[in-house]
User: Which sequence fits this backbone?
């Protein structure tokens, strides 16, 4: 393994960390509805737990209402129960085989709680990136110890990895600020 491989590997893993963080942010609900909110809700389907998106069509009716159309007749009650029992605080109502999920407006207190959740998720993402930096630096140290690179090469590699880490953490901070602004917007 060369220094270039270490940098490329660290860059790829940091990019994956940012993608995972973006997915985490999508799960945090704001005042507007989007179908991704229900992604983490699991429904019992013939003995196994599946996400709602695998047993029903999830779409938007308007800015504050999600519609869930089960693919099978008997699944409506199970889906409705799963949404109600999830920790999302949603109260679905059925109209025949269509389930409407209205999103209540967020209170100021709930918005502040959600910004704390966003900050914690951001800190978790930063910790993951720092761990990747440490791993990359350890790999460079091992190459130095095995006398495959010089001390100057190791120092340069550590500097490059630090720059990559700083860039990634700055991107995470931007995402956190944007999501906080989105959550606090009334």
Assistant:
């Amino acid at each position: 393994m060369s220094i270039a491989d270490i940098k490329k590997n660290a860059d790829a893993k940091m990019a994956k960390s940012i993608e995972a963080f973006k997915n985490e942010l999508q799960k945090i609900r704001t005042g507007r509805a989007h179908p991704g909110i229900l992604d983490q809700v699991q429904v019992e389907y013939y003995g196994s737990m599946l996400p709602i998106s695998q047993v029903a069509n999830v779409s938007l009716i308007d800015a504050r209402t999600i519609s869930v159309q089960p693919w099978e007749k008997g699944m409506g009650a199970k889906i409705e129960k799963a949404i109600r029992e999830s920790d999302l605080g949603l109260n679905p109502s059925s109209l025949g085989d269509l389930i409407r999920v209205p999103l209540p407006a967020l209170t100021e207190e709930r918005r502040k709680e959600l910004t704390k959740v966003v900050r914690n998720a951001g800190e978790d993402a930063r910790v993951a990136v720092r761990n990747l930096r440490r791993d990359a630096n350890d790999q460079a140290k091992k190459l130095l110890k095995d006398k495959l690179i010089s001390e100057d090469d190791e120092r340069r590699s550590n500097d490059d990895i630090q720059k990559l880490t700083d860039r990634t953490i700055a991107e995470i901070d931007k995402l956190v600020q944007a999501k906080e602004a989105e959550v606090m917007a009334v």
Remarks:
- The longest helix spans residues 108-145.
- The mean pLDDT is 86.
- Residues 35-102 form a domain with the Gyrase A; domain 2 fold (CATH 3.30.1360.40).
